[in-house]
Amino acid sequence: MQELWVHALEARRGEVRSRWEDLLRTERVNSPLANPDALVHLIDPTLAEIFTSLLHPSSRRKVVHAADFSAVRAKCVCGRNPYLAYFVAGEQALLEALVLAQAEGPPLDPAARDAAVQELYGVMRASARREIESFCSLCQYRSDALAHAEQTPQPQR
Fold first, then answer.
1. Where are the domains of the chain?
2. Residue 70 and residue 98: Cα distance in Å, rounded?
3. Which residue, 15, 117, 120, 143, is most buried by CB atoms nearer than 10 A?
């Protein structure tokens, strides 16, 4: 992503944070840890990580295919991970800010615009995957959900 767009996102940090919190508060709370009051304090450090990763592509860890959040969501077999709603809300808030920043700037080549969006998705989803996998590794429901999945008959094709 062009440095110009990363700085435009950073300039909108307060708006992004506020929008992220608003979106997070509209999500269904599936556990006490998914309560927005328990998650909002994570937004600023997550934004710092995202901006750093966008500015320094060489520092990025494992890349996640940017086309689909379901690959990230599939990491949580029980569906109770509070980071699921957290990162969906954050991704939407950042995408909205990027679109607004691009609309206010000079005319942009569609390929460059799409590349910036895909890079934002990739960085967000890589961060989401790390956090979701980390949380799931400690989940008390993980073994129950895996055992249930193994016992559930698969449809015949």
1. 3-141
2. 22
3. 120
